[in-house]
Amino acid sequence: MTNLVRLRDFVREFTRLVDSGADEARIFSDGRELLGALVAVDDWLPDEFARPHRDRYRQFLLHCDPLERFSVVSFVWGPGQATPVHDHTVWGMVGVLRGTERCQEFALPATPGPMVSTGSHALPAGAIDLVSPIVGDIHRVSNALADGVSVSIHVYGANIGAVARHTFDLASGERKRFVSGYENETVPNLWRV
Ligand SMILES: [Fe+2]
Questions:
Q1: β pairing state of 128-131 and 58-64
Q2: Across-strand partners of 64?
Q3: Taking the domains of the chain in order of start, what are their residue ranges?
Q4: Can you tell me the distance from the alpha carbon of 135 to that of 107, in angstroms, rounded to the nearest whole number?
Q5: Span from the CA of 88 to the centroid of ligand 1 (angstroms)
Q6: Which DSSP letter does residue 138 get?
Q7: Helix, strand or coil for residue 30?
Q8: Contact in structure between 124 and 103 (CB atoms under 8 Å)
Q9: One Pfam match, by short name (predicted)?
Q10: Quick check: 143 and 76 in contact, CB under 8 A?
Q11: Which of 44, 61, 93, 121 is most buried, most CB within 10 Å of its CB?
Q12: What pLDDT does residue 192 have?
């Protein structure tokens, strides 16, 4: 059995934060504290939401606010796995729970052409990264470990699996619409005693 109370407390506190009418800046300050505390201890995520797939990364919904004001998702990367270059269209926070991830950031070119690289950094366990149309919204995330699994917990300002967003071809900059959905049929029971 895992310590799901941590996730329950996180969901409760994050709901309070959103209920308070917090804008993106306050979500990124106060919400970052909450997410930092959640990923600081790796004893609560049930195994079924942390298992890698042999061929591709996975995303599992852990909780969606009933009013779709935020969602909490676990991302699981096996060795060598990566997302496409993509945007979010809403604020998002990435907290690494296990392993190490690499984040490569991009901007749209001024004229049609290849995506413009704007930076790359590693995120070890416990690190938090931010995305949004305001602070920078286009990136590619990959597993920095060649021989291990990395897991991160993401929080987004919408029901992210249902949001119409985009992937980008690195070489041509061509944009394609996508809706990610979620892999799982059931979410963790936060109220198990
Ligand atoms: Fe992302």
A1: unpaired
A2: 71
A3: 46-178
A4: 11
A5: 6
A6: E
A7: helix
A8: no
A9: CDO_I
A10: no
A11: 93
A12: 86
Q: How far is the CA of 13 from the centre of ligand 1 (A)?
A: 23
pLDDT value at residue 138: 97
**Helical segments of 2-74, H only:** 5-19, 24-26, 32-40
Cα(57) to centroid(ligand 1), Å? 12
The residue type of 3 is N
> What's at 172, amino acid-wise?
S
- Span from the CA of 32 to the centroid of ligand 1 (angstroms): 16
Please answer whether residues 76 and 51 qualify as being in contact, where contact means their C-beta atoms are separated by less than 8 angstroms: yes
Fold of 46-178: Jelly Rolls (2.60.120)
1: Cβ contacts below 8 Å, ≥ 6 apart: none
Rounded to the nearest angstrom, the distance between the alpha carbon of 138 and the centre of ligand 1 is: 7
Nearest one of 179, 115, 176, 105 to 142, comparing CA atoms: 105
> How far does the centroid of ligand 1 lie from the alpha carbon of residue 129, in Å?
10
Predicted pLDDT of residue 18: 98
Cα distance between residue 188 and residue 173, in whole Å: 38
Backbone torsions φ then ψ of 167, nearest 5 degrees: -110, 160
pLDDT of 157: 98
Task: Quote the ligand 1 centre to 107 CA distance (angstroms).
Answer: 14
CA of 139 to the centre of ligand 1 (A): 6
